[in-house]
Amino acid sequence: MYFTNPIIKGFHPDPSTCRRGDDYFLVTSSMEYYPGIPVFHSKDLVNWKQIGHVLNTPSALNLDGVKPSGGIMAPTIRYYDGVFYVACMGNGKKGHFVCKTDNPFKGWSEPYHIGGVGIDSSLFFDDDGKAWFQANRPPKEERYLGEREIWLQEFDYHKLELTGEIYSLWSGMGDEY
Predict the structure, then answer these.
(1) Are 43 and 54 in contact (CB under 8 A)?
(2) Which of 14, 49, 88, 151 is deepest in the core (most CB within 10 A)?
(3) Is the per-residue pLDDT at 176 higher than 60?
(4) Would you put residue 175 in left (φ > 0), alpha (ψ -120 to 50) or beta?
(5) Which whole number is the average pLDDT over 135-156?
């Protein structure tokens, strides 16, 4: 099979994908544009069709004061136990948020603001039934200007909130990424 790049034409940075059965779903950054977080569907990872947006109401996406190249960046989509989750940073206004749905073709919940600082939100659902939220932020005690760390905290996906101790997994990357 041959295909051309990009497989999704236009402005769709920071793609994240997940799979449910024979269906693949993809979300991308939407920056300062409304509606936010486009959602795509594919059966073969080559042919994608946009099926909607995660943030498609004014209450779900407040872009007041957002500067160019700001806004909604690097969302992550995951599927676990019959539910799709999208985690993302809310442009620093209320920290990270999570939206969910049992059917991405029919729309998404309003954002559940879970706090936390940093960028590049991600979710991991472990085999033991626990879920974990991970992101990147400045460490509490910077050793040098621009230092970043990757942190992890348990995510209660029933209550849609962060819980328990925060772990620093790795520190040392600079902000020149």
Answers:
(1) no
(2) 88
(3) no
(4) alpha
(5) 90
**Quick check: 151 and 118 in contact, CB under 8 A?**
yes
CB-CB contact of 146 with 176 (8 Å): yes
- Are 10 and 70 in contact by the 8 Å Cβ rule? The answer is no
Distance between CA atoms of 142 and 118, rounded to whole angstroms? 14
State pLDDT tens for residues 90-113.
Answer: 765 678 999 999 999 999 999 999
Structure tokens at 170: 């790795």
In a 10 Å sphere around its CB, with 0-12 CB exposed, 13-18 middle and 19+ buried, how is residue 111 labelled?
A: buried
Q: Are 98 and 55 in contact (CB under 8 A)?
A: no
Q: Say how far apart CA 103 and CA 158 lie, in whole Å.
A: 17
Query: Quick check: 175 pLDDT over 90?
Result: no
Q: How far apart are CA 90 and CA 73, in angstroms?
A: 8
The DSSP letter of residue 111 is P
Q: What is the C-alpha separation between 90 and 62, in angstroms, rounded?
A: 9
- Residue 127: per-residue pLDDT: 96
| pLDDT (average), residues 11-27 | 97
- Residue 12's SS3 state is coil
